[in-house]
Structures are given as structure tokens and as C-alpha cells.
Design goal:
Elements: E1 3-7, E2 10-12, E3 18-25, E4 32-39, E5 45-52, E6 58-60, E7 68-73, E8 78-83, E9 92-100, E10 113-114, E11 118-122
Parallel strand pairs: 2-11
Antiparallel strand pairs: 1-3, 3-8, 4-5, 4-9, 5-6, 7-8, 9-10, 9-11
Amino acid sequence: AVQLAESGGGSVQPGGSLRLSCAASGYTWHNLCMGWFRQAPGKGREKVASINFNGGVRGYADSVKGRFTIWQEHAKKTVYLQMRNLKSEDTAVYYCAAEKYEGGSCWQYDYVYWGQGTQVTVSS
């Protein structure tokens, strides 16, 4: 199974920026989907962004388009989420997820493997 190590969460004022990272290890897959999800207190899990790790095809939730960017670094086996112009409604625990790629769009995948989560708090 794949292990996912997340980092980069913290507290920031509205309009600020944060960068999250997720390092993957322990897998033997030829390719994988990776994604970022978030969950605010009392709310359901929301899909934020996804990426085909080898091909680089990306997907974003409408709520973050134009503000968040997902990308990968193959040599480091790491995916990043750059968050800009953060808003109070972005406050949540952010989770990295991964799944073996077997075709199609990573945005549509059901992810099985999850990181531990990292807290992002946006407040003034």
C-alpha cells in the first residue's frame, strides 16, 4: 500500500497563501492518481483538486479555480497544492489521497489511500 505524508498547513489571514505538500512512498504502481480533499467542521468531504501523476492532467473544484494550483514533482514523488487568495470558507482539514491509475480521469476516481490530514485556518 502507498503511504502519504502531508505537510504545510497552518494559519493565515484572508488573502494570504499557503502551500501544502504530500509525499508518496511504498508503492509499486506504474502511475497513480493523486488528489486533495478538505473537510470543514460539521460538513462533508469536498474534492478540491486532482492530478494524473505521470500525465499531469488536472481537475479543480469550481470553488477553488483560479486560486489553487496542483502539480507534481516526479523525482520527489510529491504532489503540491498552492493556495492563493485564501478565504475564510477555505478553512478545513486538508487530506491528500492516492489511487492506482487504471485509465480515465483522476477527477472521477474513488480514492482508497489517504494521508493523515493537515489543518488550514483562514481568519482575521
